Amino acid sequence: MRYYNGAHGAVVDVPCYEPVSVMSFLQCKENFSSQKKRKVDTNSAPRTVNGQTIPEKQPLLVTGVVMRPYQLEGYEWMTMLYENGINGILADEMGLGKTLQTIALFCHLMEMGVPGPYLVVAPLSTVTNWVNEFKRFAPAVPVVLYHGDKKEREMLRKKHINQTTRVDAVQDALKNVFVTSYAIAMNDRPFLRSVKWRFIVVDEGHRLKNMNCKLVKELKLYSTANKLLLTGALTKWVLKS
């Protein structure tokens, strides 16, 4: 597993308990750059938001903001983790854009032919904000707030789990990003574990008490290609996990 502190640009390898095949960091970065070059139309006019030029490295689906250099660096780092099958931790201080970097990661993967679905698990107090940030920064990306009572959640699953959406900037139809709370991720694990999630992101990981807490145990039963933990306070147990 790798840990990245965006504020200081520090990358640290921590013990990983799952075997992974890792290509060199530089080689992966070169591959990423070549992919980006292939998908950007150099003949088109520069993209702008409120009169500001959008960086070429910024995903096409991220249209509502101009990402800052350290945010682009963090999102590229997360992309490298995905390409190498490595789980990771993004540790940043509050207000530095962990949500935006995660949205950019999902957008990049969608543009590269990984349509989803994706799952964000967050404290109940933040799930609405996650949905609003998707609509603000990447309005074309289909996002579902997976919340409500038992019947409402059953209806959401039936309607949205396999739903696809066509977006002009992407060749393949996109599947939804689901945003849900810790409690519902645990309660609905029997229904959600069978979904082949392309990426699971857990927000505010510092709130989790230890590796033996119920949420960690339940999430280990989910089917996913990669996992990412977002935290503002890196603790020893988080590094161990």
What does this structure look like?
This protein is of the alpha/beta class and 241 residues long. It has a single domain (2-240), classed as Tandem AAA-ATPase domain (Rossmann fold). It is built from 9 helices and 12 strands. The protein has helices at 25-39, 69-84, 98-111, 127-137, 150-160, 182-187, 189-192, 214-219, 236-240; strands at residues 2-5, 10-13, 48-49, 52-53, 88-91, 118-122, 143-145, 164-165, 174-175, 177-181, 199-202, 227-231. It has an 8-stranded mixed sheet with strand order 2-1-5-12-11-6-10-7. A two-stranded antiparallel sheet has the order 3-4. The protein has a two-stranded antiparallel ribbon with strand order 8-9. α1 (25-39) packs across α2 (69-84) and α2 crosses α3 (98-111). Residues 10-40 have low confidence and may be disordered.
SSE layout:
Layout: E1 2-5, E2 10-13, H1 25-39, E3 48-49, E4 52-53, H2 69-84, E5 88-91, H3 98-111, E6 118-122, H4 127-137, E7 143-145, H5 150-160, E8 164-165, E9 174-175, E10 177-181, H6 182-187, H7 189-192, E11 199-202, H8 214-219, E12 227-231, H9 236-240
Parallel strand pairs: 1-5, 5-12, 6-10, 6-11, 7-10, 11-12
Antiparallel strand pairs: 1-2, 3-4, 8-9
Helix pairs in contact: 1-2, 2-3
How helical, in percent, are the residues?
Answer: 25-40%
Mean pLDDT: 81
CATH topology: Rossmann fold
CATH superfamily: Tandem AAA-ATPase domain
Q: Taking strands numbered 1, 2, ... along the chain, how are they ordered across the largest sheet?
A: 2-1-5-12-11-6-10-7
Give me the Rg, rounded: 17 Å
Order of helices and strands: EEHEEHEHEHEHEEEHHEHEH
Structural class: alpha/beta
Summed up, the domain count is 1
Count the E strands. Answer: 12
The count of helical stretches stands at: 9
